[in-house]
Amino acid sequence: MSYIQYETEGAVGILTIDRPKALNALNSEVLADLDAAIDAVDTNVIRALIITGSGEKSFVAGADIGEMSALTKAEGEAFGKKGNDVFRKIEAFPIPVIAAINGFALGGGCELSMSCDIRICSENAVFGQPETGLGITPGFGGTQRLARIVGVGMAKEMIYGAKNIKADEAYRIGLVNHVYPAEELMAQAKKLAATIAANAPIAVRHAKEAIDKGLQVDIDKAIVIEEKLFGDCFETADQKEGMGAFLEKRKEKNFINQ
Q1: Mind spelling out the 3-state secondary structure of 83-127?
Q2: Considering only Cβ atoms within 10 Å of each terminal Cβ, which end of the chain, N or C, has fewer?
Q3: Has 227 been annotated as catalytic?
Q4: Which run of H or of E encompasses 146?
Q5: Is 9 in the active site?
Q6: ∠97-199-7 over CA atoms, to 5°?
Q7: DSSP state of 154
């Protein structure tokens, strides 16, 4: 995985896209490395994952235009599928994924960030889907996830107009949860990940599954999904530990993911 760096800090995994000379642009090799890196995360140990980009300028500046420029119609569709398959894997990953967006998040970079559960960014971050200005549409889920996150009207304005927005506007429209000075971004990402990782892993995973699956169906079906996942938490060691700690009025909890 020459384009991905992976490290762990306790129960938090940190995955860094490492192609700084190309502003971490996504070509086929980077996508393959990202796919393999996600598969290699040990979710029995890791309870929250951070995805970021190397350097101070860019999270991911987009898909590699040099590679895309010569694609045929069939090759373009296959390249879109390759990106979509990886990003869908991230979106459906059993543990929460945080995008720590350190600069440009354009095209495929914006789409990668939207496949994560939570997005936080640095003050110098820039978001956008510039594809229509290049003669193509967003191809890695941008037409689908952006509208779901910020609303149809704003998504259409950004996509039709190939319009970039800065960090403060991304926060205003709900594309990101928080904006931090660049030098604080990773510390804040790790703090958020550690907060998540400190809670019962089974409960956190079930909550993610309930939210994501419930949003795809009507409310009556959604609450049935919630009921099942709620019930599945009972009789686990972590449920007994969490409720036991509450009843015993102790702050210390030992969640063992069982």
Answers
A1: HHHHHHHHHCCCCCEEEEECCEEECHHHHHHHCCCEEEEECCCEE
A2: C
A3: no
A4: helix 142-150
A5: no
A6: 45
A7: H
Per-residue pLDDT tens digits for 119-155: 999 999 999 999 999 999 999 999 999 999 999 999 9
How far is the C-alpha of 167 from the C-alpha of 101, rounded, in Å?
A: 10
d(CA 109, CA 130): 11
Residue of 111, 157, 209, 227 marked active site: 111
What is the rounded CA–CA span in Å between residue 222 and residue 104? 36
Q: Exactly one of 131, 184, 209, 252 is catalytic; which is it? A: 131
d(CA 222, CA 143): 24
* Phi/psi at 188 (5° precision): -70, -35
Dist CA 161 CA 251 (whole Å): 51
From CA 83, how far away is CA 86, in angstroms rounded?
A: 5
Give the Cα separation of 211 and 196 in Å (integer): 16
Predicted TM-score (pTM) of the model is 0.97
CA R_g for the chain: 19
C-beta of residue 85 within 8 angstroms of C-beta of residue 49: no
Residue with tokens 């928080």: 178
Q: Give the pLDDT band (50/70/90) at residue 1.
A: confident
Q: How far apart are CA 70 and CA 67, in angstroms?
A: 7
Backbone angles phi, psi at 71, to 5 degrees: -75, 145
Rounded to an integer, what is the distance from CA 17 to the centroid of its chain? 13
What is the dihedral angle through the alpha carbons of 235, 241, 246, 252, rounded to the nearest 10 degrees?
A: -170
Query: Average pLDDT over the chain, rounded to whole?
Result: 97
Looking at the DSSP assignment, which residues form a beta bridge with residue 49?
Answer: 13, 97
